[in-house]
Amino acid sequence: MRKWIQSTNEKLAKIESSFSKDTTIRKKLDRLAADQQVNPS
């Protein structure tokens, strides 16, 4: 049981870290898109 909890916690941690990476990338992309809308090249 304890092993199952540990592996589940590790999976959740991996999902959380990849999710936070996705959100930071999305924020950067949003910022780039906003910059392009302000200064259309």
Describe this structure in words.
The chain has 41 residues and is mostly helical. It is built from one helix and no strands.
SSE topology sketch:
Layout: H1 2-38
Short description:
Helix content is 90%, strand content 0%. It has one helix and no strands.
Counting helices, strands and paired strands, the structural category is mainly alpha
Shape: rod-shaped
* Structural Rg: 18 Å
CA-CA gap between termini: 59 Å
Helix content bin: over 70%
Order of helices and strands: H
The average pLDDT score comes to 91
Number of strands: 0
Helices, by number, come to 1
Biggest β-sheet strands, sense, barrel = none
Strand proportion: under 5%
List key phrases describing it.
single chain; 41 residues; mainly alpha
